[in-house]
Amino acid sequence: MHLVEFDGSFAGWRQAARRLLHEGIAPHAITWRSGNEAPGLFDAAQASVPATAASARVRIPRQLLDELEAAARFRVADRWSLLYRILWRVAKGDVAARLAGDIDGSELHKRLKAVRREAHHLHAFLRFRPCQSEACGAEFVAWFEPAHDILASASLHFAERMGRHRWLIATPDGAVFWDGQQLQEQRPCPPAWRALAEQPVDEGQALWLAYYGSTFNPARLNRSVLESNLPVRFWRHLPEGPLIPQLMSQARAGAQRDGQAAAVARQAGKRIRAGVSGNADPDRPD
Amino acid sequence: MQLIDKLTVLADAAKYDVSCASSGAPKRSSKGKDGLGATNGMGICHSFTPDGRCVALLKILLTNFCLYDCQYCVNRRSSDVPRARFTPEEVVTLTLDFYRRNCISGLFLSSGIIRSADYTMEQLNRVAKLLREEHGFRGYIHLKTIPDADPLLIEEAGRYADRLSVNIELPTEASLIRLAPEKQVVTIKQAMHSIHQGEHQAREEKGSPRFAPAGQSTQMIVGADATDDSTILHTAQSLYGDYRLRRVYYSAFSPIPHSPNTVPFEAPPLLREHRLYQADFLMRGYGFAAGELLSGPGNLALDIDPKLAWALNNREHFPVDLNRAEPAMIARVPGIGVLSAQRLVSLRRQKRIRYEDLTRLRCALEKAKPFIVTHDYRPQLATRESLLLRQQLSETPQQMALW
Fold first, then answer.
1. Is residue B112 in a domain?
2. What is the pLDDT of residues B36-57, one digit of tens each?
3. Which one of B270, B293, B316 terminates a domain?
4. pLDDT tens, position by position, A207-240
5. Which DSSP state fits A185?
6. pLDDT category, A58, cuts 50, 70, 90?
7. How many of the other CB atoms lie within 10 Å of CB of B108?
8. Is residue B398 part of a domain?
9. pLDDT above 70 covers what percent of chain B?
10. Residue B55 main-chain phi, psi, to 5 deg
11. Which residues of chain A neighbour B14 with C-beta distances below 8 Å?
12. Do B121 and B18 share a domain, yes or no?
C-alpha cells in the first residue's frame, strides 16, 4: 500500500498522479492523503514508492484533465481515488471509464454535474450589497456558503458583470476580492472581510422585496417546484428568504382567489373611460 | 407616488406575462470597462417566487394605463386596478440597482397602450436606448413589441433589445375578436414578420446592425376561451415554422380581480399548462409534429405525459433495441431524454448496453421498461395492452389542498 501525501490542490495531485502512473502503481494500491501539512511530507511519502520501471510516456486527453480538475472541486471525504482510477483506466486504453454509463464514469459525471450546479447557484443566488464601510476597499460585498470548492473558479463571472466596480465575496472557507484588475484569493477568509460581508441588512433592499412580493402570483402557489429550484439552504442568506414563508401562508390562507398582490389589492382602483381622447394618458391630470 | 409604490403596482401588472428567459444573447462582457453587465448565452434564474416561477429579469410595465379592453387582462381600461407610470429614468435606476445587487440579469419591459401604439413603442425604446447608450448596460433586454407600431420603431427596438416579443394572446381569430376587440391577428402577424425580417437581414448582410440576437417569442393564454390543446399546438407549430420563434409561452389564464363575465372565474388546471409545455418541448427538441401528439381535436391527457401518450398510441414502434436503434428513435422512448440518448450512443460504441447502464444514466426506468430491449433485458410487458399499461403508469391524482 502506498500512502501518497500532497498539498490538497489539483496541481499537487496531478503531479503525484503522473508519477504514480509512470511507475505503474495501480489505483487499489494507493491511499491519498491531502492536507496542509508542511512540504517535505510529500517528498517523504514519495520515497516509500518503489521505483519500478517507468512505463512508456502516458498520453492523457486534455479534456479528461479538465474534467478531473472540475470533479476535484466536489467535496467528499475521499475525492482523489476515483480520479486516479479513471486516469488509470483511460491510460490503459479503457476510454469507457469517463462515460456517464460506466460505473466510475457515472460517479465522475455526478460530481461534475453537482459542481456545475453549485457554480450556477453562486451566479444566481449570491447577493451583493453596497459596502457601508470606508475602509472596505470594495464597493460591493457578499456572503455565500457554497457546497463545493467553486469560489475561485466560478467568481470571475462577476468580473464580467460588474465592470469597473470592486467587489468582495466571503465564504466560510475562503474569500475573493476583485480590485478592478485582478482576482485575489484568500484562504482562510480574513475575519475583517467576513465581518464586512455579514453586516446587517441595508435599506436599499426594500425595493427588491417590494418587487419580489408583487411579481409572485398567489393564485399559483407551488411549494415543491419552488424548493426544487431554490433549495431551502439558500433562503437564509437571500434578502427575500424571510418573505417566502410569509407569502406562502398568505396565499394558502385563502385570502387570494386571484393573482393580485395583497399590497395592490388594498389600493383604490381607477377605471379608464372609453372613447375619451387622452383619457388613458397618464400625463394629463384627472 | 413613491418609486416603491409604482414598482408594487407595475410588477403586479406585468406578472401575467410568463416569459422570463434571459438566454440566447451573444457573449458580452464589461470586464475592465466602463458600463455594467454581461451576457453569455446562458440564462440565470436569480430567484424563484413561491409559485415556482423563476425571476431572471426585472419584469415590469412602463405604465398600466391602457386604452384597450382585452377581457382577460388585469390592466384593461374597464378594470378597477390602481394605475401608475414610471418615467424612463426610474426604470433605468431600478434596473441598474437590481443588476448590481445580482438580483436580475436584465430587464423585460412592456407597457399598456397609451395615446397610440407608436407613442408607446417610442417610450419603450427610449428606456432601452438610455440603458445601452447612456449607461453602457450590457445585460439582457427584452422588449415587448406593440403590434400596430411603425416597423421603423420595431427596427429601432431590435437594435437595443436581445429579445423582442409580440403576444398572439389567443390561438384563434374568433377568440381574439370576442375577447380583445382592439387587437387584430393580421397586425400581430405583421409585427412578427417585421421582427423575423430584421433577424434575417442582420444574419445575411455583413455589417448590418445587430437585431434582437436572442430572437422573438410570444405568449398564448390557455383557458380564457374554449380552444382545445390541439388547436393551440397546431398554432404554435405554424408560428415556429413561419416566424422562427424561439419560444411560445403558454400562460394558464389566472383569475383576475373584478373579472368580467366573458372570461371564466376558475383557472384551468395548472397541469394543463404543464402538459402543453411538455408537448411544446417535444416539438422543439425531439422532432415531434403537433399532429403526432394530438391527431384529432381534443386536449392532451392530464394523467400521463405527452411522450408516454404517443408511445402508448404507437406500440408498433416498440420495443426499441437500444443497441441498434437510431438516436432519434431512442429519444422517443418515454423516460429517456435527448441527453441520455446521446450518452447511450457513445456508450454503445464501447460496449453492449445493459439494463444496469440505464440505471446509471438515471433514466426514468418505470416509464421506459415496457418500451426497450437491451443486451440482457426484454420487456415482459411488451405485449401488455396499452390501456393496462396506461393505468399502471399514470400519475395518481394528488390529494386536494386542505384550503
1. yes
2. 999 998 999 999 999 999 999 9
3. B293
4. 999 999 999 999 888 999 999 999 999 999 999 9
5. E
6. confident
7. 24
8. no
9. 97
10. -115, 100
11. 215
12. yes
Same domain membership, residue B276 and residue B223: yes
Gap between the Cα atoms of A146 and A116, Å rounded: 12
- The pLDDT of B207-225, averaged and rounded, is 91
CA distance B345 to B320: 13
Rounded to whole angstroms, the Cα distance separating B325 from B322 reads 6
* Alpha-carbon distance values, B286 to A149, A226, B289, B298, B307 (Å): 36, 27, 9, 22, 10
* Residues B271, B277 contacting (CB under 8 angstroms): no
B121 and B74 fall within a common domain: yes
The span from the CA of B126 to the CA of B325, in Å, is 54
Bridge-based pairing state of the strands B163-165 and B216-222: parallel
* Contact (CB<8Å) A263/B8: yes
With CB atoms and an 8 Å threshold, state whether B257 touches A213.
no
pLDDT at A282 over 70: no
Check whether residue B261 and residue B114 sit in a common domain. yes
Q: Which helix (H) or strand (E) holds B322?
A: none
Residue of B4, B101, B322 to mutate, interface with A, max A Cβ within 10 Å: B101
pLDDT bin (cut points 50, 70, 90) of residue A97 is very high
How many domains in chain B?
A: 2
pTM of this structure: 0.90
Q: Is A176 helix (H, G, I), strand (E, B) or coil?
A: strand
> Which cell is A216 given?
409572485
Among partner residues B30, B79, B347, which is closest to A160 by beta-carbon distance?
B30
Nearest to A146 by CA among A259, A234, A221, A244: A234
Cell of A73: 472541486
Co-location of B275 and B191 in the same domain: yes
Q: Same domain, yes or no, for B225 and B315?
A: no
Residue A76: count other Cβ atoms within 10 Å of its Cβ: 12
The range of the structural domain enclosing residue B254 comes to 3-293
B97: which chain A residues are within 8 Å (Cβ-Cβ)? 204, 207
Asked if A18 and A88 touch (Cβ cutoff 8 Å), the reply is no
* pLDDT over 50 at A51, yes or no: no
